[in-house]
Amino acid sequence: MQTAVANNLEPFDYLKYLLTALPKLGRHYKPEALDQFLPWNLTEKIKPLK
Prior knowledge:
The chain contains two helices and no strands. The protein is an all-alpha fold.
């Protein structure tokens, strides 16, 4: 959560996004697929801190 804050993301929205999007990966995925969920890669998808 601190990494989300450090990247100016609303922590609750980041967590909500993760819990919604991660299950869509399915069971078998490459570890590199998780890179898209790192906070610095989501600044366009999640609203910034107020």
